[in-house]
TrEMBL record:
The keyword Membrane applies. It comes from the Bacteria. Residues 7-208 form the Urease accessory protein UreH-like transmembrane domain. Keywords: Membrane, Transmembrane, Transmembrane helix. InterPro entries: UreH-like_TM_dom. The lineage of its organism: Bacteria, Pseudomonadati, Pseudomonadota, Gammaproteobacteria, Vibrionales. The chain crosses the membrane at residues 6-32, 52-72, 84-107, 132-153, 165-185, 197-216. This is Sulfite exporter TauE/SafE family protein.
Amino acid sequence: MNSDLIAAFFIGLLGAGHCMGMCGGIASLMNLGQVSSSRQWLNPLCYNIGRLLSYTLVGAIIGGSISTISTYSGINEPLNWLKLLSAVFMLLLALYIGQWWNALLWFEKAGQGIWKYISPLGQKLLPVKHPLYAIPFGFVWGWIPCGLVYSMLTWSAAAGDFINGGLIMLAFGLGTLPLMLAVGVSAAKLNQVAKSLLFRRVGASVLLAYALFQLYQGVVRLV
């Protein structure tokens, strides 16, 4: 398996605590007023399916667009610069997950202007009357401004084609899935583990080492 996909999944797993902060309140609304035990799982699952679909789609669009531009222009150097940029974002992401530096939050503010036009589409789907309605709701909510998602999109941009661009975002989304499902069914113990500083910093240290390696490789490609 591509090492980038493994790393993307790992980042999703580590960054799920941030996802819980951004989307946890919304995810918990999926079961508002539900008494059926089957729906306790089905509504959050459908919501997260929609969320992962949005990640995969935007990753494929960005990866495919950059690849097409590079192919028709006959210039491959922009891809090398994008790979270097993705390594820088990975470094910022590791520092953010480890709670050493929150520079990544600056990029979330940049998306607030667009989000105010998108969010009303999701609000029209509440309350969720059927599990299938949770899929489009999750799809809309997948566009919420998130520095974690933006950093992963730089990987998609440098992926080389639309398939790999989409797969990177899908792998990232799958990494966030266990915790986001846990929010939907109120699995408090799992939530506590993901939010623990030790868990975050051990994972962030591994990611930091990987980011530095990718940064080194990116510099070598350009020299």
